[in-house]
Structures
1.
Amino acid sequence: MKVAIGSDHAGFQLKAQLLNWLRTAGGGKHQILDVGTVSEESTDYPDFAKEVAEAVTKKRVSKGILFCGTGIGMAMAANKVHGALAAVAWNPETATLAAEHNGANILCLPARFLGLKQAQAMIKVFLTTPFGGGRHGRRVKKILAIEKC
Ligand code: RB5
């Protein structure tokens, strides 16, 4: 799968730790588009959220993963891009439900509150869990309709 990833300074270390894993067998051998940031120097998370969200909604990649301190700012910014369904998750169960029930196409991870193993488990289920459709499809359509108001 093609996956776009991005972080601000708070998410940089976790993103860096996950890059090779994502590209190799353990993490699923994905093709990764890393939009930055490239160090722990202070940055603004909306810049990276926008790039990842646009890569997803313009179908340059299938899914996105964003890292900031809490995941919250990244989700708020990414969800401004029409078609982005960015979800903050905090354990594998909520990452699974974000994909299955909410059709999330971007996972936003709270890097300051997660360990590497927990992040790996969440990414694995997020990238492999299919959307449930049915009643969930109806609800997601309503979310996207709100963006058109
Ligand atoms: C940066 O200090 C922090 O505010 C940011 O990473 C994020 O948590 C915002 O939602």
2.
Amino acid sequence: MRLPIIAGNWKMNATLKEAIDLVREMTERLDRIKGVEKVLCPPFISLATIKELITGSSIKLGAQNMHFEERGAYTGEISPSMLIGLCDFVILGHSERRHYFGESDEVVNKKVKAALRAGLKPILCVGERLEENEMGRTREVVTTQVKLALSGVSPPEELVIAYEPVWAIGTGRPSTPEQANDTIGIIRSAIAELYGEAIASEIRIQYGGSVTSGNIGGFMQQPEIDGALVGGASLKAEEFLSIVEQTAAIKKVR
Ligand code: PGA
């Protein structure tokens, strides 16, 4: 049985004060929801403060990015060892990083290796662009991204994958649950090719892209989908709580 995982990717939103207010609003109720791993991924500058606010709760933290080097002349970057003790997870290879900051599959691969070395759990994002989807290239794109990101990586039990079709992110136009389930099945087969069926059946794969409290149910009904990476809707306490609550209720009865 895979424990469902809902992660809130706040992206470049929330000042420290806004972050504190949002976490205060959610912590107690989020903590009480069982059967779902709950992860908040605020901007770097809020991690330490939020860490204190959630201490003693079942809520976990994730970073949104990380450099692959341990230290050095990389102005503005954050290293794996700086995140140790602050967060358990780190989002890697998000399509916004790939698109706006030119992150290649090779860089994502280095980051995955560095995260695992540091004991951080990567949330590895993959997903096809609109034109790739329209050309019927989804299978090829996600399989290639997964294989390149995991090239030379020994069986990564701590890995989480987020399937995020680029055309669904922030657009209000999510994938259908069936389509997402199919593609996640393809990703699981790619993992099976790399590491065997046993590991593939344990790795959690989320869906991401315009997830809301209104559509989470459909995604969570799907057997291959183990949770969600939530952007916009994770910035509203009631929305995020409802997404986590519905996930707990649906995955429990399955
Ligand atoms: P969205 O973002 O939920 O706002 O579409 C998801 C993501 O980019 O992780």
3.
Amino acid sequence: MLTQSLPLRHVSEFAADIREGLTKSGQRELPSKYLYDEVGSALFETICVLPEYGLTRADARLLEKHAREIVRLLPSPVHVAELGSGSGKKTRWILEALSRRQKTYYFPIEISPSALAACEKELGQIDLVSIVGYEQPYLEGLRAVARGRADGDHLLVLFLGSTIGNFDRDAGEEFLRSVRNILREGDALLLGTDLEKSVEVQMPAYDDPAGVTAAFNLNLLARINRELRGDFDLANFRHEARWNAIERRMEMHLRSTCRQRVEIPAAGLRVSLDEDETIWTESSHKYRIGEAGEMAARTGFRCEGQWVDAEWPFSQNLLIAE
Ligand code: AVJ
């Protein structure tokens, strides 16, 4: 049996969030952060190597190519906190460049214990780098890291992979403002944003022919079955990717292919779904090239540098707290 040993506090939070999202009048929703249990994290790692999903490779290429230049623009001494480390693979370039100049602490902040473990394994062997993982939500973890630092130490916060795209635009800016409030003047935020591209390229990245993204999306229902004793029949749902041109975002939905009832006892929930009704599971906002700088200016940062991938429109933005 596959068991996910969630602490009780998390179980009830998960149940409450699921209940809230599924009982919404109008469009039902499930929060995208719950896509990443052990199975979901493994499926996401597979998405990252799909030929159709260029995002992660672009992110990594930019870091590999420009890490030294980025590090040269940072204050010293500086330690690294990463929001949502995932496997930690692309972070290696930054840590290696930094460790050439000083002993460096790396604080991955990640709610997924399996991702945190993978990241510690991936990056644990770099000379002059010490890892201390925080299994916490982003802002709580960042606050804990900031509280623990010495007076003269600066922080570089990594928010890579266009994870900011999961937030609605307003909420994304509010999030940057909250990050800024935890930082000191001169601290840095390296922000990765996926840029707008043609729909012909964008769509298959979220609806790949091998069905990995479909499995990633459907696993959210399987997770609810595993952890909250739900009875979703996954055969009665279809993965759907949509480009929302007005909001400039990709959306993932799960479409109910028939009229059906679902029970989720551990969330105290019974839901009736109509045929063709969808549950909205994720947004991935796409940005214009100048947008990161504009967001920075409105949230207490200045944009000190921007690097754009030539193959897959994606940008790294070095923001400095003012
Ligand atoms: C990890 C949130 C950046 O939105 O592109 C990949 C997650 N969803 N395929 C994204 C994801 C579907 C990914 N982020």
4.
Amino acid sequence: MTESFTPASVLVTGGAGFIGSNFIHHFLQTNPACRVINLDLLTYAGNLENLKGVEGDPRYEFVRGDICDSKLVAAILFREKIDAVIHFAAESHVDRSITGPEIFVRTNVLGTQVFLQVSTDEVYGSLGASGLFTETTPLAANSPYSASKAGADLLVRAYQETYGFPTLNTRCSNNYGPYQFPEKLIPLMIHNIIAEKPLPVYGDGLNVRDWLHVKDHSRAVEAVLKNGVPGGVYNVGGNNEWRNIDIVNLVCDMLDSKLGRSSGSNRALITFVKDRPGHDRRYAIDASKMRNDLGWEPFYTFERGIEETISWYLDNQEWVREVTSGAYRDYYEKMYGGR
Ligand code: TYD
């Protein structure tokens, strides 16, 4: 293999969000000589609490700002002599994109004129019962969220082709782990079980997602940054398909025992609700390019990852209270009538 790219200074956008903050923790540990500048607007899903452990690190700096502010971004690139930009900043929640697509277009498309673009398998649309998404599967996004990510991926491709700008594009399956905002399936279920609230399962609960621990995703992004071929697309996935209802049952059962509740009592909270409009049936990733070209594969088994994640949420109830106050509460009450 040719020599790896070793940046001295990187800009991480959206570093206060779920995947971005996990990446910063990981990257500072594995790259002792690199500076990390975190540009984040601190919208509802971004929280500096996620970065408590690195705040005092002299190699780390936080800048509050908007990725659409090109003057600000240019100033940071010059001032900090940035070698690479790792772009996590995005609006990410499909249900929000259905009720309010505009902000997704602004942030995810206009905000993306960059670099190592961290994207999603959702750009490929939905699969039937068999088959996997590869890097050459045509883009067929079905939600305003995934269409905005596909638009950004195409801009990234255009920058490479038009300006010869070196870009990399990762497309990852569903992530889970610490610091995930509790509007997403796994942390929402954990949160509602603790509070003994109904567990809303969309439609028949048989939609399939391919789950990957966020730390394995961070390792994948680092591998692509260091050894990816510019212009390349890299699918990242856990080879770990689960039906939604099976995940919800698993989380219920694990929390029965952790919370000392009688067996089956959490499952009684499951409530089947109206399906999400345009709900993609199945996502599954073929990550063989990551494995063959970059030697990456996931470390976490799902059993260990989900167990650790549940424990993390139980141990970090203060964090949950903080992020679910205010604006999030208003949104949730509007969606679910305050349940
Ligand atoms: P989500 O975590 O929103 O991720 P994505 O839509 O990007 O895959 O949802 C994961 C799956 O769980 C998806 O099929 C929708 C379903 N889901 C529910 O059934 N209930 C819920 O409350 C949420 C948030 C999601």
